[in-house]
Amino acid sequence: MKDNKYSNYKLIPLDTIKAATLGDIEAMNAVTRYFGGYIAKLSLRPVRDKDGNERYAVDESIRRELESMLAAAVLRFRVA
Question: What is the pTM of this model?
Answer without folding.
Answer: 0.82
